[in-house]
Structure formats: C-alpha cells, structure tokens
Amino acid sequence: MSVLNVSRTCRRRALGSLRTLATEATHPVPRQPPVAPAPTPKPPRTNKPIIHTSVILNRAPFLTRDPTPFERAFYAYQQRIRRALHNPFPEDFYFKPGSLLATKFRAEENVREREAYGNGFGVEEEKSAERAAADAAALEQLRLQEGEGEDLPDREHPADKAKDLRSLDRAGQRNIYALVFVNGEWRFPEGDIKKGEWLHQAAQRDLEHECGAHMDTWIVSRNPIGLYKRKVNDTASTSPSTPGTPTPTSTTPEISTFFYKAHILAGQIRPANGATDFVWLTKEEIKERVAPEYWEGVKDMLSDF
Length: 305
Description:
The chain is α+β, with helices and mostly antiparallel strands. Helices cover 37% and strands 18% of the residues.
C-alpha cells in the first residue's frame, strides 16, 4: 500500500470520529428530574401545660410525742442494762451524809431500782417509825418548795375535746396542714402563675389570695417539694362524673402543680377569693377529705407524725 493511500485512510477515520462527536453534542440525553420524598406526617399538636403553684402550710408539733409501745420497751431495756453496768453513784461526794438531800436522793434511787428490776430491789434500810415519819414530812416540804407538787397541764387541749378542726391548738403532738374548700372540693391553697413571676413568688401570692394576709408564714425553700399533674377536665371532687362530661384526650392541656412547703408562725387563716372554709388536719384526716387521685399525688409530701 502506498503512502498516499495510508494518509487517506487515516483522514477518513479522523473525520468519522469528529462527526460522531458533533452528533452526540447536538442531541443530549434528557435527564429524569429527582423524585422528592413524601412529606412526613406531623404529629398532632399538643397544648402547653398550665403551671400552678400550691402551698402545703404546716403547723409543727409543740408537744413531745408519746413513745410507742416498742419505744417504751426499748428504752426500759436499755435503762436496765445501763444501771446494771454503770459504777455506783458516789453519794458521799455530792451529798452530806444524813442530810435531807441525801435522804431524798436515796428514796428516789430506790424507786428507780424497783421500776427497773422489780419489787425485790431498792429496799430501804430499816428505820424507826418516828424517823420515817420525820423524813417523809421533810421530803414532802422539800418537794413543795421545789414545785414538784404542782399539777401538770393536760396534754389534750380543749380544742381536741371539742373537735374544733379550725383551731391551731389541736393535735399538739402531730403535724397538721391547712386545707381550703374551693368549688366544692378540699385541697391545699393553689393558684396560677403570672408572666415573669418566679414559682416561689407565685406560691406566696396564691397563699395570701385564698387564705388572707392575716398570717405570718415562712416558705422553707425556693425549690418545690413535689409535682402533681392532671388534665384540665379532671376534677378533685369525690362525686361521680356527670353524663356528657368531655373525656380528656392526648391534646387536652395538662395542669402541672408545683408544691411548696411553708410554716405558719402567727395568725390564722381567713378564707377569701373563692375559698369558703378551712380546716387544720393530720395526714390521716386529709386522706378522708380529698379525692383518691389527689391523695396519691400528695401523700408522700406529708409527715407521718
């Protein structure tokens, strides 16, 4: 093959390639538009919870609590062990032998011995009838001078005997709490919160709103001690629901009540602004007044004593 023929063959191949490229450039392949993903269904919109504050107003005990039978047995057992193991009391060092104070101490010590171990212990030494009578008269005179013969006041207040549930003097050995009667139900003082208001500030304002300003109270902390949630249509009353009452759903707004603990120092409750009555009750008495759902939410915030 001549050189001229080879050149022509190469030329034809180059022109063929150029025609192919030009044809492909003028006729582009159409692209499919991207498929948009299906929109995700939005969950149903729920309403924001309604914030309330409530105050558990407490009157602390002012009498020493009576020990339980178990506590009495425990203390008596410990006292017997202590008296059996301790060293004898040095009477001669603290009391002059034969003095009236020494005689009084010995008589009281004999009584304590008999209470701890029985009638066979704490036996007094034999005395003549005249000396025993003289010692008894002297001891009685000494007790009167020291005020031991005075009668102690009764631990049961007249308010307990009269069953006055509004008196702060009742149940002196127990913690009692204030309940108010609002809209046919018993509950703790409660109210809403305003915009820009702290929770403890709202609690103090709501307490004065329903219980009046004639009290000296102290809110223990700025932090709540508990939370109780319920639906708006829920009621704290113990009466059965009436037919046609709307049933709460997932979109029904929820009331979140934050509880604060407070102590009353002086004064008394004067119901106002919807509150028509009040009582001071112990933990067990509160259970009988409020609704079961309300009791389950607040029972752990109350003291057992």
